[in-house]
Amino acid sequence: MESALNSGDTAWILTSASFVLLMTPGLALFYGGMVRAKSVLNMMMMSFGAAALIGVLWVFWGYSMAFGNDIGGGLLGDPFEFFGLSGLMGEDTAAAYPTMAFVGFQAVFAIITVALISGAIADRAKFGAWMVFAGVWATVVYFPVAHWVFAFSNDDAGVVGGWIANNLAAIDYAGGTAVHINAGAAGLALAIVLGKRRGFGRDPMRPHNLPLVMLGAGLLWFGWFGFNAGSALSAGNSASIVWVNTLVATSAAILGWLLTERFRDGHATSLGGASGAVAGLVAITPSCGAVNPVGAILIGVIAGVLCALAVGLKYKFGYDDSLDVVGVHLVGGVWGTIAVGFFATAVAPNGVDGLFFGGGVDQLWRQAVGALAVLAYSFVLTLLIGLVIQKTMGFRLDEEDEVTGVDQVEHAESGYDWGTLGGGSGIGTTPRPTSGGAHSTGNSSEVKA
Amino acid sequence: MKLLTAIIKPHKLDDVKSALESFGIQGLTISEASGYGRQRGHTEVYRGAEYTVDLVPKVRVEVLVDDVDVDDVVEVVVKSAQTGRIGDGKVWTQPVEDVVRVRTGEHGPDAL
Question: Is ipTM beyond 0.85?
Answer without folding.
Answer: no
